[in-house]
Amino acid sequence: MSEQIISGVFSTKDIGTAAITAYREGRRAASQQKYGKAIRYYTDALSFTGTPKLFRARVLEYRGLCHWLLSDFDAAEQDYHASLTASDDPDQVARARVRLGELTDFRGDYDEATRLYQQALAEGINTENLLVIGRARRGLGILSRRRGSTEDAIRHLTQALAAFGQMGEARERARVLTSLGRTRHARGEYQHALDAHHEALTIFDSLNDRWRIVQSLTDIGECHQALYDMLNALRYHEKALDLAMAYGANLLKPEIQRNVGVDMVEQGRFEEGLVYLQLALDGSRHLGNREQEALALYNIARAHLVRVHLEPAEKAVAELEAAAETLDGDRYRALAMFVRGELLFHQGKQAEAVAQLNMAMLAAQTSVDRGVLWKLHATISHVVDNEAIAAVHRTIAAEFIRQTAEPLQDTHLKSCFVHAPPVLAVLNVAGINPDKL
Question: How many domains does the chain have?
Answer without folding.
Answer: 1
